[in-house]
Amino acid sequence: TAFGVPVRLIIGGRGRDEFAERVLYLWKRCDIREVTGVDVAAEFDGAVVRGVLDPDEAVHEAAWALDSVAAETVEIAESVLTPAVTMAAITWARGKKVMLHAGAIAHPETGRTAVLIGASGTGKTTATRTLATQFGYVTDETVAVAADGSIQSFAKPLALMPDDRAWGKRQHSPDEFNLLPAPAQLSLGALVLLTRDPEGPEVPVVRELSTIEALPLVGEHTSYFGELDQPLHELAALIRSVGSVRHVTYREAATLTDLVAELL
Known about the structure:
By secondary structure, this protein is an alpha/beta fold.
């Protein structure tokens, strides 16, 4: 389940059992369960992703023709599956919620959630992973916010660049980093626009943005923004509900802990 969207995974190929075992492990915080020998297509209402684990090149070509994902090894399959599931859920939910490219962590008791907005490669996942040892892990990828400010978890595997290779991110279960689970009920508590500067200040610098400043900066990190009924009005309403967007320039993720605690 990705931020409330059911996603059906159909896994095939000669390595399907090993692949399925890893999927069940990596995605277990997303309410994943194994269903075999049952055709649930008739009553299923959600997104669908097909995965094929097989070294045969012909199988790959057929898989892509069917808009599926294919891979030669389990590790490659894992790295391809994660964005495929995310995109399938985003596409299915388009126009229903404001979807932000962001990580998110929640107060373990109140469920108030800090949304950490940033582009890929800006340290968003590292910041989420670091903070989620003290706050509940909601997601490191996409946050979908309803009009009333409610949020549903997408506790997917964390994708991090490994040190031992130059291609593809490696997928990690949240359990590998001892990340805290998020409460069942989540609500928007803060919107934080992250800028990581390795040579920046030791103490994070925070600047509150006016709504008119924040709209384009946050808007560029949304998905299917134009398919909302009133995209600018809806995003402005979310910004006003938390007071303002905080633009935070920081050097190391660990220095964000006190700031987030104060915001939540």
